[in-house]
Design goal:
The protein is of the alpha/beta class. The protein is 38% helix and 30% strand. It has one domain. It is built from four helices and nine strands, in the order H-H-E-E-E-E-E-E-H-E-E-E-H. The strands form two sheets. A five-stranded mixed beta sheet has the order 1-2-3-7-9, with helices on both faces.
Length: 188
């Protein structure tokens, strides 16, 4: 049985370590890609305002709730961000019921996400009246709008690259705290 020198042992361990690392990368590349994509989205959305919460449940007043992907406190009010992960070309209008995603020659229909964001915003307005509340649908992934992009739809690369400097009015700070209190009451 041949023995390896310390230098050869080090090289062998390095090669085995790199092989294991490569194998793990290949096995978990989809998971790693999803984690990185979520990180980029979270960073981009956090630059929209002073404070941000993710995955909040907001009571709808009818013994149910609506789910908000991101809620951001800005100097203008509360901004709700709904995230859709899509690739390919997106076709849809503000008032159409169904939109289409065209990718690799296949077409898939989905409900107009602007209707959902309007419902979430209306629910928030009922929870924190007299507070400006707006919403956007953020399209993440490798997608584009080859025709007109409807107002309220936004691509990830359109979000600011640097944090906005904002001074939050005290009344919005109070509304934010009230909103979070109501959302926490629903949490399990």
């Amino acid at each position: 049985m041949a023995f390896l020198t310390p230098t050869q042992n080090l090289w062998l361990l390095s090669v085995v370590f790199l092989a294991v690392l490569l194998l793990l990368g290949l096995l978990f590349r989809r998971s790693i890609g999803q984690v990185l994509a979520e990180y980029r989205i979270r960073q981009a959305v956090s630059r929209l305002g002073k404070r941000m919460h993710r995955d909040l449940l907001v009571p709808d007043g009818l013994d149910g709730y609506v789910a908000a992907d991101y809620v951001v406190l800005t100097h203008k009010g509360i901004l709700v961000v709904k995230v859709n992960h899509f690739d390919g070309n997106i076709f849809g209008g503000r008032d159409t019921d169904q939109w289409s995603q065209v990718t690799r020659g296949a077409s898939h229909r989905f409900d107009n996400p602007l209707h959902e964001i309007q419902l979430i915003c209306a629910t928030l307005r009922s929870q924190v009246p007299n507070t400006p509340i707006s919403g956007i649908v953020l399209f993440a992934g490798d997608c584009r709008f080859p025709k007109d992009k409807p107002p309220g739809a936004c691509l990830l690369e359109e979000l600011p690259k640097k944090p906005r400097r904002q001074q939050i009015p005290p009344r919005l700070d109070t509304a934010w705290e009230l909103f979070l209190l109501k959302a926490r009451q629903l949490a399990p």
